[in-house]
């Protein structure tokens, strides 16, 4: 959660979403619609699979609310709150309780990306549904981004570019469907302090058909002159391990991803 002086203690789940191409330039931030929206209203206009999805979300939450918080130069900030059903870990006849939760969402002005902060996929899905319905009139117009192998390669190239005063580092990678020397591997994980110096890393990377996730250290950021330790996976979830993260650092990191992945589906 955002704290004092723009600090964020830890972002365990920073999930990147985007408006579908047909809605990318059509959304509008209406603070009145935002504050009055509910899943029940979304359900009334949903059809097919979207309707079933919203019905499932309604089983997980109650008293959901999304409201406008503030506007910055690069994005709008909305706050989502609700009572969220605790996951059921043990088979009993008693329904698990609801607990109050809240988190922020960033709506990026230039790219029309949406970033949920400190929330898992199910919880983020409720807020994203309300935001989508409030800004475009369609509860299903915002989807998670999906990264292909080429997207990870673009990130690798940017991290290691000689144009940086101090280049980034690659710490860990999970690759799928690797064919090497007539042998096939479903998954290979490489872990090292500097994978970019390993010839094995490049040989396996060229043979892999997909990448599931990449852990890395960024080059020094312009906003604060320090690097960030991060992990990104193929469905747009970013984990940032660097403590005392500033809003300006997060915004700069998102701008980098926007530059690299604006085309991603």
Describe what you observe in this structure:
- This protein has 265 residues and is α+β, with helices and mostly antiparallel strands.
- It has 2 domains: 9-144, no CATH class; 149-234, no CATH class.
- It is built from 7 helices and 13 strands.
- Strand 11 (229-233) and strand 12 form a beta hairpin.
- Helix 2 runs antiparallel to helix 3 and helix 3 (48-60) crosses helix 4.
- Residues 1-8 have low confidence and may be disordered.
Defining traits:
single chain; 265 residues; alpha+beta; 2 domains; 11-stranded antiparallel beta sheet; two-stranded antiparallel ribbon; 29% helix; 35% strand; globular; disordered N terminus
In short:
The chain has helices at 31-36, 39-45, 48-60, 121-136, 149-159, 199-207, 247-261; strands at 7-8, 11-19, 61-71, 75-85, 98-108, 113-117, 142-144, 169-180, 183-191, 208-217, 229-233, 237-240, 245-246. The protein has 265 residues and is an alpha+beta fold.
Write down the secondary-structure element order. Answer: EEHHHEEEEHEHEEHEEEEH
- DSSP E strands, number: 13
| Total domain modules | 2
- Tell me, briefly, the overall form: globular
Mean pLDDT: 91
> Can you summarize the main beta sheet?
11 strands, antiparallel
Termini separation (Å)?
A: 28 Å
How many helices? The count is 7
Radius of gyration from CA coordinates: 20 Å
Structural class: alpha+beta
Measured as a percent range, the helix fraction is: 25-40%
Bin the strand percentage.
35-45%
Uncertain regions spanning at least 5 consecutive residues: 1-8
Q: Topology, pairings included?
A:
Elements: E1 7-8, E2 11-19, H1 31-36, H2 39-45, H3 48-60, E3 61-71, E4 75-85, E5 98-108, E6 113-117, H4 121-136, E7 142-144, H5 149-159, E8 169-180, E9 183-191, H6 199-207, E10 208-217, E11 229-233, E12 237-240, E13 245-246, H7 247-261
Helix pairs in contact: 2-3, 3-4
């Amino acid at each position: 959660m955002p704290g004092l002086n723009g600090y964020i203690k830890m972002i365990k789940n920073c999930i990147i979403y985007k408006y579908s191409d047909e809605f990318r330039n059509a959304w509008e931030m209406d603070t009145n619609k935002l504050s009055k929206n509910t899943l029940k209203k979304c359900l009334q206009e949903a059809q097919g699979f979207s309707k079933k999805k919203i019905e499932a979300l309604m089983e997980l939450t109650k008293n959901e609310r999304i409201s406008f918080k503030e506007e910055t130069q690069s994005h709008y900030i909305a706050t989502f709150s609700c009572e969220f059903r605790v996951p059921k870990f043990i088979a009993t006849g008693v329904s698990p309780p609801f607990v109050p939760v809240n988190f922020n969402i960033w709506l990026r002005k230039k790219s029309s990306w949406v970033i949920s902060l400190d929330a898992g996929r199910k919880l983020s899905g409720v807020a994203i549904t309300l935001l989508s319905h409030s800004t475009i009139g369609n509860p299903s117009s915002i989807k998670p981004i999906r990264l292909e192998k080429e997207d990870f390669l673009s990130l690798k190239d940017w991290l290691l570019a000689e144009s940086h005063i101090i280049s980034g580092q690659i710490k860990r990678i999970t690759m799928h469907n690797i064919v090497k020397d007539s042998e096939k591997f479903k998954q290979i994980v490489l872990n090292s302090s500097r994978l970019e110096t390993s010839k094995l890393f490049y040989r396996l990377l060229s043979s892999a058909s997909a990448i599931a996730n990449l852990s890395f250290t960024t080059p020094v950021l312009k906003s604060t002159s320090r690097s960030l330790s991060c992990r990104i996976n193929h469905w747009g979830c970013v984990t940032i391990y660097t403590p005392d993260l500033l809003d300006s650092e997060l915004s700069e990191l998102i701008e980098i991803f926007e530059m690299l992945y604006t085309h991603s589906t």
